[in-house]
Amino acid sequence: MASLAHRMAVESPRVTADVVEASEFPDLSQQYAVRAVPKTVVNDRLEILGARPEGAFLAEVLSAVD
Amino acid sequence: MGIISAPDQEFIRQYFAERLTGDVTIELFTRPRPRLHVPGQEECLYCEETKQLLEEVGGLSDRINLVVHDVLDDPSALTEHGIEQIPAIVYRGQNKGTLRFFGIPAGNEFRNLIDTIVEVGTGESDLAPESRQALAALEQDVHIRVFVTPT
Q1: B84 to chain A: nearest residue by CA?
Q2: Tens digits of residue pLDDT in B74-131
């Protein structure tokens, strides 16, 4: 998911992709209730748990801004 | 002693030589390890190691320019770039959006570091054409946070 998010940011000026090493930032991980990885949070409101293929991940991410 | 083994260095050097066709600036926001424990100051677990790792990677291609911001010397660097945690890595090249990594890019994430450098340098994401189309049509800002662990 990390590489997919970064690739999306390569393609669009609208995308900011932050990859966070969860164990180094316990406060932030707690704030986003990270209990397992990968966990993806889009615009602070949509959560995607686990891995997805490219098309499914993109569709879910874009659903957060529809 | 290096973090990246000699055979891996050689492999990555060759990989960059073949694929990295544009320049990449890697900005690292970090701070040196304090000589004394300062009460109230949060420890930066892997700041030193992240700097060493990026220096080693940066040495494997003339296309890579590593810029190190020492946030103890220059705290304003954090606010200027909207960075809230360190170590933080910001990639700049042919990318249209913003790519950042917080923490040390080790383990699985080391592979992503190498791939991201190439993608940012070339501006080619390797995404499917329909994905690229959908992203090009995007009209609202999207902030994606992906939480990972190194293994």
Answers
A1: A28
A2: 989 999 989 999 999 999 999 999 999 999 999 989 999 999 999 999 999 999 999 9
Query: pTM of the predicted model, to two decimals?
Result: 0.94
**B149 occurs within a structural domain:** no
The ipTM is: 0.97
* Residue B148 domain-assigned (yes or no): no
Give the 3-state secondary structure of B49-83.
Answer: HHHHHHHHHHCCCCCEEEEEEECCCCCHHHHHHCC
DSSP state letter for B113: H
Q: What residues make up the domain containing B117?
A: 6-136
pLDDT digits (tens, 9 = 90+) for A4-49: 999 999 999 999 999 999 999 999 999 999 999 999 999 999 999 9
Write out the two tokens for B22. Answer: 């544009």
Among residues B30, B41, B25, the alpha carbon closest in space to that of B73 is found at B30
Q: Which of B46, B139, B144 sits opposite A17 (nearest CB)?
A: B144
- Residue B22: its chain A contacts at CB < 8 A? none
Domains of chain A, first to last: 2-63 (3.40.30.10)
Which of A1, A4, A8, A10 is the best residue to mutate to test the B interface, defined by the most B CB atoms within 10 Å of its own CB?
A: A10
* C-beta neighbour count of B21 within 10 angstroms: 13
